[in-house]
Structures are given as structure tokens and as C-alpha cells.
UniProtKB/TrEMBL annotation:
Protein name: Mitochondrial carrier
Cellular component, GO, one term: membrane
Solcar repeat segments: 52-141, 148-242, 254-359
Source organism of the structure: Linnemannia gamsii
Keyword Membrane part of the UniProt annotation: yes
Phylogenetic classification of the source organism: Eukaryota, Fungi, Fungi incertae sedis, Mucoromycota, Mortierellomycotina
Amino acid sequence: MSSEGGISSPTATASTATAAAAASMSQLQSSFNPSPALKRALPPTVAEEHEPPYLDVLLAGGMGGTIADFIMHSVDTVKTRLQGQPTANPPKYNNMFHAYSTILREEGVSRGLYSGLAPAMTGSLPGTTLYFGTYEYTKRTLTAAGCPDTLAHLAGGSIGDFFASFIYVPSEVLKTRMQLQGRYNNPSFISGYNYKNTWHALQMIVKYDGVAALYQGYRATLVRDVPFSALQFAFYEKFKVEARKWEARPDGQMSLHIETACGAVAGGLAGFLTTPLDVMKTLLQTQVKKPTPSSTSIATGTVAASNQKYYVGIWDGLKWNLKHHGVIGGLFRGVGPRVFWTSLQSAIMFVFYEQAIHLQENMRHFGHYPYASS
């Protein structure tokens, strides 16, 4: 029949149905695709995750590393005292808790447990800033070139620590000497040093031993820190990936307690495996110059320690300590406070780093970041 009879043709009916279906699909698709305004209202972790800008990495890394080093400095002092105390029977410090209580009672907080804080902080901020920036750049470059993730993390940690070592090794030398000395002319601990303060220590070292003395034990520091940093970041990145899969949060991030656990376990494992190298780093950096019959101790600000072993290198120190003190008492002395320190320091550093990255990302996304727009 014709359309005048009140009944439409099959062709017209099909066209109308197709148009209605297309309109419905378009409306449904638009409901699942947020508008640009809505996308701007979502935090970046929900909208679209991407690599943070290098400026964010530098600021977050410097802040996280410095805060962690400050909080854990007293534990580092205890570790240094345990590793560097002169050979004696019985030893002055028996274990971590005995050392902590003894130092606190005899020397106090600021010039005892927190001795050497000034040089530590002086090297920590620029050192960790350069460290995180180099790590992130190396990791991204190698990953983009098709390098396996684990190898990229190991290489990034190693290269980052190598470049940062030019900054933090001199501060490490000053810090460990001030930590061993404790109070000026400390009667409670024979360290071999007699410095009034950090500036006096720097002057005496440069004047009588030369600038090169600020890099004393440099090879031992690299041998310790390069594998430590490589293992720490490789462990953390691996744990972070597995933790995100396990939690399966909608925003793709880790909860705070899981983030803390990943950082602590990564730092603890790396610290335990590199403890023998840390022992040798401390002994090489803090030993006085090889004694001579005509040596004097008053002018140089040092106290002679004639009965102490003089190490000519890392391998010599490892063999001597293993032979005379064994595995636990020689190579792994101070392992308790070292693992405790590396665990908590790593946890604090990574937590502050991740939180600072998220904060800067959100500030930039909502237009509140002063250094860049969204």
C-alpha cells in the first residue's frame, strides 16, 4: 500500500531504526568518554599515568633523601662506632642498643648521636638530587632503547651513585670522622681525631693531608655504594610492580603501608648484602696516616693509634678481618644497625619521594604548580 493509507514502507522503517540506534550508541559512548572539563577535574593518577617531569624527580629525590638521612643519622652514628671502634677485649660497644644507650649517656644527642650532622646534610641534598635525576634519566633512556627493566634499574642505580659520589664522598669522610670523634677531644672513645668542629676538621685535613684526603676510601665507597644503589633500586622497582598487581587499586598506586614495606625490604636486602664493603669503607676512611717513627699528633689534630692495623686496600682489609675476626665479627660487624638503618632510610626516602611526586603531579594538573602549566 501507499503511505497515504497510514502504513509506512519497510525501507523508511529500517532507516528510522538505524538512525535511532546510532543516536543511542553516540549518547552511550559520550557517557563513557568524559568531557575535557571532567578530565581536568580528575587527578592524573586516574586520568592518564605518565612519567613525571625531571624537575619533579629532582625536587622529590632531594627532599626524600635529605629527610631520610636526617631522621636516621643517629643510627648511622651507632653503626659507624661499632665498625670503627679499636680492637679491644671486651669492646667498648657490645651491640647496637648498648652503643646507642652508651653514646646517649656519655655524649648526649647533638654532639654524640648526631655528631657529623652538618657535613652529612651538606652532601645529602645535592647528592641525592643528582642521584635521582641521573637514575631516572638512565632508566628511561635504556628502557626506551629496549633494555630489560631489571638491567635498566641496575644500571640506573649504579650510574646515578657514581655521579653523586663526587659530591657526597667528601662529606662522608668528614661525617665519619666527626662521628667517631663525637665530642671534641672525646675521652669516651679513642677515635684518632681531635677536631673542634666540621670547619676545623676540613681545614686540618686539607692543610696537612691535602685535598685528596677528602676522597680517602673513594674506591671503597664506590665498591660499597654502587652495588648497594643498584640492588636497592632494582629490588624496589620489582617490589613496586608486584605490589601494584597484588593490590589492584583503581588508581594504580600503592597504599602507604605497602609502599613503606617495599622501600624497607629493598633497602634492608641491599644493605645486608653489601655490609662487608661498608665495613671496609668505614675503616679505610677513618684510619690515620701510616705511622712513622717521627710522626707527631699534636699539629695534625690526630691522636696516634700505634696498635691499629693499617689497611693498604679493600682486598687487604677484607682478608685481614676475615682471618683475625671471622665472618660475623669481622666482615659483618655492625650488620644489625646497618640493615636497620638502610631499611628505615630506604622506606622513608621512597615514601617521601613517591608522595612528593604525586603532590607535584596533582598541583601541576590543577594549575597550582608554580614552575609549569598543565
